[in-house]
Amino acid sequence: METILKIKGKILFDPPDKTNKHRTQGSWKKVAYIDITGDICEYYCWHMKKRFNLVLNRPLRRAHITFINDSSRDIGGDEPWNALKEKWNGKVIEVELDLVPKTDGVNWWFTVVEESRKPLHDIRGEVGLGRPYWGLHMTIGSAGISYDEFEQGKEKISRDNVAHSKYLHELAKKGLI
C-alpha cells in the first residue's frame, strides 16, 4: 500500500502571531513554513476519529510544515533573513509526506520523506542553519487540551483523550495498529 503523498504549498516567512508565546518570542525568533491549502488536517483528524475514536485539535496555523523556527542570532540578524525572505517568500514548493502517522503520545504528525527534505535544508543552509532540531513534519493535530476546551471547562474530557492517545501510541510501538 502506497503511503507517500506529494503535496504542494507556498513558502511563507514571518507569519502573524497566533498566541502569547508567539508574541513574546517574535522579537528574536525567525519563522518560515510551507502553508498547505485545503483540508488535509481536517481529513486526517476525521480519519483518526473514525478509526481510533481519537479526537485531535487542529494546528493553529492549519496544515503547514515549519522549516525555520530559529533565533535571529543564529541566522546572523535581519539582513540575511530579509534577503532569504525576498528570495523565497511566496514560492510554491512540493514535498512528500509519509502518511503513516507518528506520535509522541499527545501530538500526531506525518514526516516529510527524507529525499524531499533537501530543498528545505538548502534554504536553511543559505543563512547558515543546519538541520532543524525537530525533523521536518506536518502536524495533524494534538490530543491535548485546546484553549477553547479549557475555556469551556472540558478539561476532564481532554485528559481522557490524552490517555487514549497514549494508549494508541503504546499499541503502535508494539506493531498492533
Description:
- The protein has 177 residues and is an alpha+beta fold.
- It has seven helices and six strands; from the N terminus they run βαβαβααββαβαα.
- The chain has helices at 20-25, 40-52, 72-75, 78-88, 118-125, 147-151, 155-173; strands at residues 4-13, 29-35, 64-71, 92-103, 107-112, 137-142.
- The chain has a six-stranded antiparallel sheet with strand order 3-2-1-4-5-6.
- Strand 4 and strand 5 form a beta hairpin.
- The longest helix has 19 residues, at 155-173.
Keyword list:
177 residues; alpha+beta; 6 strands; 37% helix
Summarize the structure.
By secondary structure, the protein is α+β, with helices and mostly antiparallel strands.
Q: What is the helical fraction, as a range of percent?
A: 25-40%
Mind telling me the C-alpha Rg? 17 Å
Q: Uncertain segments of ≥5 residues (pLDDT<50)?
A: none
The percentage of residues in β strands lies in: 25-35%
SSE order: EHEHEHHEEHEHH
**SS content category:** alpha+beta
User: Count the helices. How many?
Assistant: 7
Give the terminus-to-terminus CA distance: 15 Å
Q: Tell me, briefly, the overall form.
A: globular
Quick one: how many beta strands?
6
List the helices and strands and how they pair.
Layout: E1 4-13, H1 20-25, E2 29-35, H2 40-52, E3 64-71, H3 72-75, H4 78-88, E4 92-103, E5 107-112, H5 118-125, E6 137-142, H6 147-151, H7 155-173
Antiparallel strand pairs: 1-2, 1-4, 2-3, 4-5, 5-6
